[in-house]
């Protein structure tokens, strides 16, 4: 199993925020650099003649990883671009509704707000409390918001604020039954849980490769079900925009394709230990780490409170702070943990700034969580233990 020596992270840090931006192993960074060098030897030859075939090869490998047909898979710089692409082209009018949950990533919520306001539509935000109960309760909490006016449903595959793994397959099945398009924000899913886009049944699925797949930054995918490929187009039109779905997205102007071209190196990095072993390692370490920190704080870790917790939390787990805090206090706590203790961990918001979100990746060890627990004690946050 690869360990921290495969990454270039600062070894003085306890880096518990893989969910934030991912981190690419050294060999993946080197592969990206090789592609950059190849491009700069003959930029015109590389970008015009070689790139289409190279992209098509990467697309094939990524499609296989996702169990998807390659004809539906295009590359974007990041999940934000993918969600905006779909949301900008949603058919919305006055009185229509867009359904979303209170776990939605703030940037995606902002995109939805803008689209709804421009169309005179309503944003319906469903509450999904944590602890979340089981996957049936989560699906019901989301689907209770469907109405005859719903024109788009947006759910996270794994939510940023909570790490909650949504039952997207069940939600997709009901949306399909009711004929309402579903966009799944899978920013955190690829590489954190198994994802099979062929059987998932969503209309649109957007996911980062630069988070849990550990590909270089600015690598993401947008998958569209066959019925949308005739009309969905990138936000930026260029040469291929009238030539069909794939050509329209493959060239949106000159940009650095090296991150996308290095994705196969990331896939091969994880294929060596095998995905099942990686998922088991990361889920188990996150669970143990959260248990340890929650034990120190004397508070709850909601992701593991239910029998099917394995499906409701994966490699990002929440631990509740002793009390909710203001955002400024949350940010100050993050800063002090970093500057005084070398611990990188986010405080997240769900019904208050009250959660530490702990990630686990192969480079982490239980010692990282022990360092966090000890830092929290020194900062006086374990004072209420047993109270
Ligand atoms: C759920 C979710 N959606 C979208 C994004 C945006 O990802 P990116 O910044 O790569 O566009 C994030 C980033 O953390 C996220 O957590």
What labels describe this entry?
Aspartate Aminotransferase, domain 2; 3-stranded antiparallel sheet; binds pyridoxal-5'-phosphate; 43% helix; 15 helices; 2 domains; Aspartate Aminotransferase, domain 1; single chain
Describe this structure in words.
The protein is of the alpha/beta class and 387 residues long. The protein has 2 domains: 28-266, Type I PLP-dependent aspartate aminotransferase-like (Major domain) (Aspartate Aminotransferase, domain 2); 274-378, Aspartate Aminotransferase, domain 1. Helix content is 43%, strand content 15%. It is built from 15 helices and 12 strands. It has a 7-stranded mixed beta sheet, with helices on both faces. A 3-stranded antiparallel beta sheet has the order 9-12-11. Strands 1-10 form a two-stranded parallel sheet. Helix 6 (135-143) runs parallel beside helix 7 (168-178) and helix 12 (275-297) packs parallel to helix 15. The longest helix is centred in the N-terminal third of the chain and has 24 residues, at 43-66. The chain is globular. Residues 78-80, 105, 107-108, 156, 160, 185, 187-188, 208 line the site of pyridoxal-5'-phosphate.
Kindly summarize this structure in a few lines:
The protein is α/β, with parallel strands linked by helices and 387 residues long. It has helices spanning 18-21, 26-41, 43-66, 79-88, 106-119, 135-143, 168-178, 197-200, 245-250, 258-261, 263-271, 275-297, 309-312, 327-341, 366-378, and strands at residues 14-15, 73-76, 97-101, 122-126, 150-156, 182-185, 204-208, 220-224, 316-325, 343-344, 347-349, 353-359. It folds into 2 domains: 28-266, Type I PLP-dependent aspartate aminotransferase-like (Major domain) (Aspartate Aminotransferase, domain 2, 3-Layer(aba) Sandwich), CATH 3.40.640.10; 274-378, Aspartate Aminotransferase, domain 1 (Alpha-Beta Complex), CATH 3.90.1150.
